[in-house]
């Protein structure tokens, strides 16, 4: 992504995410990806992008594909996928995860559906950096879907034990009240 700035990524990507990455984090996502293809207009604003990570030898995963709503329906998404598949064509395995509603879009481009498994840490959706040495995790970073709370009575004190996935960490928190 030579020369792309966070400013050029401020068009409103990650539509529909309640806690989207900032433009700066978006830039980090692009810089850290193995392969990126972008669509840009004259003033260099990015209007669409696709990213993949790869071991370079055998496999690649396509992680993000998005075209800004105002530019959808003009073949940009198709061109981004075609260019990415062309860049990765030396590999055995090229995978991505999508909703069933988007499968026809990818099937037109030669991909086929399979069954997969995923984890989603919704508390990490914005991808904001973790603070080094942080003693406890911010409440909003706890992943609601995997949080479980067990209550038990210890004498006159009610104790709550909860756990949550935080990035690659699994945390346990005990609160008494
Ligand atoms: C999916 C997306 C990238 C397609 O980009 P686009 O530039 O609008 O796509 P194209 O103009 O190349 O569309 C080509 C064809 O795919 C169809 N298509 C586009 N988006 C589709 C979708 N979400 N589901 C099913 N079909 C879709 C179009 O109707 C068009 O069909 P046609 O040629 O018969 O008219 C875009 O809709 C988008 O950014 N969506 C939000 C993010 C998203 O869902 N990304 C995919 C994550 S897996």
Fold and architecture overview:
- The protein has three helices and seven strands, in the order αβββαβαβββ.
- It is α+β, with helices and mostly antiparallel strands and 177 residues long.
- 15% of the residues lie in helices and 29% in strands.
- It has two domains: 6-107, 3-Layer(aba) Sandwich (Aminopeptidase), CATH 3.40.630; 122-127 and 134-176, no CATH class.
- It is extended, with a radius of gyration of 20 Å.
- It has a four-stranded mixed beta sheet with strand order 1-2-3-4, with helices on both faces.
- Residues 140-148 have low confidence and may be disordered.
- Coenzyme A binds at residues 65-67, 72-78, 98, 101-102, 104-105.
- What is the CA-based Rg, rounded? 20 Å
* Ligand list: coenzyme A
Overall mean pLDDT = 85
Query: What would you give as the CATH superfamily of the largest domain?
Result: Gcn5-related N-acetyltransferase (GNAT)
List descriptors.
4-stranded mixed sheet; about 180 residues; Aminopeptidase; single chain; 3 helices; 3-stranded antiparallel sheet; 2 domains; alpha+beta
Which secondary structure elements does this structure contain, and how are they paired or packed?
Elements: H1 23-32, E1 35-40, E2 46-54, E3 59-67, H2 76-87, E4 93-95, H3 103-107, E5 148-154, E6 157-166, E7 169-176
Parallel strand pairs: 3-4
Antiparallel strand pairs: 1-2, 2-3, 5-6, 6-7
Bound molecules: coenzyme A.
Q: In brief, what are we looking at here?
A:
This protein is α+β, with helices and mostly antiparallel strands and 177 residues long. Helix content is 15%, strand content 29%. It is extended.
